[in-house]
Amino acid sequence: MVIEKEKLKAEILKNLKVSFGKELSEAKDFEIYRALGETIMQDIASDWYDTEKLYSQQKQAFYLSAEFLMGRALGNNLINLGILDEVKEIFKELGIDYNKVEDAEEDAALGNGGLGRLAACFLDSLATLNLPGQGYGIRYRNGIFNQEFKDGYQIEKPETWLKYGDVWSVMRPADEVIVTFGDGSVRALPYDMPIIGYGTRNINTLRLWEAHSLNDLDLGKFNQQDYLHATEDRTLSEDISRVLYPNDSTDEGKKLRLKQQYFFVSASLQDIVKKFKKQHGTDFSKFADYVAIQLNDTHPVIGIPELMRIFIDIEGLSWQDAWSIVERTFSYTNHTILAEALEKWWVGLFEQVVPRVYQITQGIDNQLRQVLAQKFPNDPDRQNRMQIINGNMIHMAWLAIYGSLKVNGVAKLHTDILKTKELKDWYELYPEKFLNKTNGITQRRWLLESNPQLASYITELIGDGWITNLMELKKLEEFLDDEDVLRKILQIKHEKKVELAQYLYRTQNIIINPESIFDVQVKRLHEYKRQLLNVFQIIDLYNRLKANPNIDFTPVTYIFGAKAAPGYFVAKGIIRLINEVAQMVNRDPQVNEKLRVVFVENYRVSVAQKIFPAADISEQISTAGKEASGTGNMKFMLNGALTLGTMDGANVEIVEEAGIENNYIFGLTVKEVEEMRKHGYDPHVPYNSVVGLKKVVDSLVDGTFNDLGNGVYGTIHRLLMENGPWQQADQYFVLEDFEAYRRTQQIINKEYKDRMTWARKSLKNIANAGKFSSDRTIEEYANEIWHIIPAKL
Ligand SMILES: *Cc1c(COP(=O)(O)O)cnc(C)c1O
């Protein structure tokens, strides 16, 4: 964007006065942040309007997602507009610390983890590629909780990003719609956020819906002096968009959750149909030529019967006509094969909350039954397995596949597992629907913004084409044997490690040594991700260092960051265990020069941006077959960390691109896990035979560690060592993989000493990270699923 520096400065000062009634000298950082945000919103308004008009002529893709984990917008917007340097200069002239102003922004944390962050990266890529694509979601008043530690346990504190409103959103009251449930209606009020592309005038939109009551105040009750009940309806309605469900990869099956899903999906579809009619009238036979809708996991799948309802009940189409449009409009992304994540709704609840949509779902199910009876006449078992409504439950993934044009997994390995195992029945019925779309991340946020030092050095070496074409990083291979370049790579990494150390000292009063190896595992806390394997290795390392203080050893700092779902007892116990190990290690002068452990509090996007650039080692150690893709692994790679991982998710493709010799792969493969399950895995075998492992496992229950009486360490011990009614002992193969993991850690510790060889591996990873740009992912969706084409202002 071309705006004059002096004009920009004057606008900021004016907004400060208009919005807060202050001169610069009196203003707080937060107020300066807001004034700057307002200035940007004013300056982009015209391009935003023009983009909307331009896109309305095109086929558009609508990305429906219950989560958008956006993080902060200011830095990203300034970079994408190309005015970050100007703003920094202005602030310098005015004597303002830009970093403090940036820190005044709260994360828009409307998501749990990878799924929500993927949606955010996709929006950035859509805008940058000038693609007509918009996001639709929920404007949760409270995003993912803020995490604090008390006695090493996680405490959840409410997150309140909207406390003082939000400078990046514009309310659009004229586009309000009504959403009707079995027990009444609510108003869905949209707020639009601009999604500013890099190096383009195009500005896309994320539309988030907020729930409101039809009758804000019941005057009858109010007049009877019944104050509380007078606002009851308002409170109940507003509850729908009140809070994000904090579960990652688990399904709660709660009524409010179903209401949230139907609320934002119905509002979005009404909006899409309204826009279509405005452009094309009521000839809905053309609908799928102008509209593609992507369902991010099963959360918005209720959209399939809802669009049927709109077409049949409101627009007067026949069932057949409606279905032939619907089945060409939607596509579905599967994000997991974990059984506990597969959404199923109890029919009683579903019928109560959305009675008409339930009837239509029954109709779709009946239609599918006929297809199945015809396709598999001699296989009643299979016909049963594939029914959408089965017993008392509605299987949302089956509804998604049946009602969609395309179904995709999120990494090659994941899609293969879907085709050959989890969704085998469906793949055999509809092979043409299935395809893979390996996830990606936006290099604008995860390199250009997060690691400006590395970004400008790369630009110095190969030019800035990588910012919009990440495959250009391949040109860095030319410098693999250039010692000056390798030294500079190491120097930048060191600088980022110092910055992270300073941040941790400032925020958590923790001292770490930037000369040590930064070995990092940041992601949601889940048993399948195996933070437990990581901390077991640390306990064993501690035991070995205590027994033999003089072993040749490169100092290591283990860094964790993770939120646990508030109701996930075992995950919270693992957080407590890591914190307890951290205390034990960090306070022990016999080892704390060599080993430190840090748990970063309240891991979120803004903190992630400080962590990824500072990592030497990227821990991606899930049980093979369990992590659909992972995207954290890609952010690490792009910033030059080496992957310590299993052959799972996108790790497989990372080593395919960068070379297995430039990363550290260990552990059971998907096939080996399957074999062990089949032939019976007994964790007592590694427990009794792997040196040191028994001592580590026993320490959970022998008094070494203390769970303060809540019993969680005993539970973890039991899950590892005993078969339970629901699962086999050590179902995630922590003990089985322990020895291979420890051996790989030891190799890393030795190889880190050879700094030039390490730097070469690091550069090799950066140079081959091109595939993992979300620009590549989005281009594939655009070409192979949505069939949309760029339209540039
Ligand atoms: C990228 C990201 C994730 C996803 O991490 P995985 O390791 O892929 O699970 C989760 N949370 C935040 C804040 C992220 O930035």
From TrEMBL:
Reported EC number(s) for this entry are 2.4.1.1
State any GO BP term from the record. glycogen catabolic process
This protein's cofactor list reads: pyridoxal 5'-phosphate
Entry-annotated residues carrying N6-(pyridoxal phosphate)lysine: K635
Cross-referenced InterPro entries, in alphabetical order? Answer: Glycg_phsphrylas, Glyco_trans_35, Pyridoxal_P_attach_site
**One GO term describing the cellular component:** cytoplasm
> Does this entry carry the keyword Glycosyltransferase?
yes
Catalytic activity, per the record? [(1->4)-alpha-D-glucosyl](n) + phosphate = [(1->4)-alpha-D-glucosyl](n-1) + alpha-D-glucose 1-phosphate
Q: What is a single Pfam family found in this protein's UniProt entry?
A: Phosphorylase
Keywords from the UniProt entry: Carbohydrate metabolism, Glycogen metabolism, Glycosyltransferase, Phosphoprotein, Pyridoxal phosphate, Transferase
Q: What is the main EC category here?
A: transferase
Q: Which CDD domains match?
A: GT35_Glycogen_Phosphorylase
Tell me the domain of life.
Answer: Bacteria
GO molecular function (one): pyridoxal phosphate binding
Q: According to its UniProt entry, what is the function of this protein?
A: Phosphorylase is an important allosteric enzyme in carbohydrate metabolism. Enzymes from different sources differ in their regulatory mechanisms and in their natural substrates. However, all known phosphorylases share catalytic and structural properties. Allosteric enzyme that catalyzes the rate-limiting step in glycogen catabolism, the phosphorolytic cleavage of glycogen to produce glucose-1-phosphate, and plays a central role in maintaining cellular and organismal glucose homeostasis.
PANTHER family, A to Z: GLYCOGEN PHOSPHORYLASE, GLYCOGEN PHOSPHORYLASE, LIVER FORM
Identify its protein family. Belongs to the glycogen phosphorylase family.
Q: What is the protein named?
A: Alpha-1,4 glucan phosphorylase
**Organism from which the protein derives:** Fusobacterium hominis
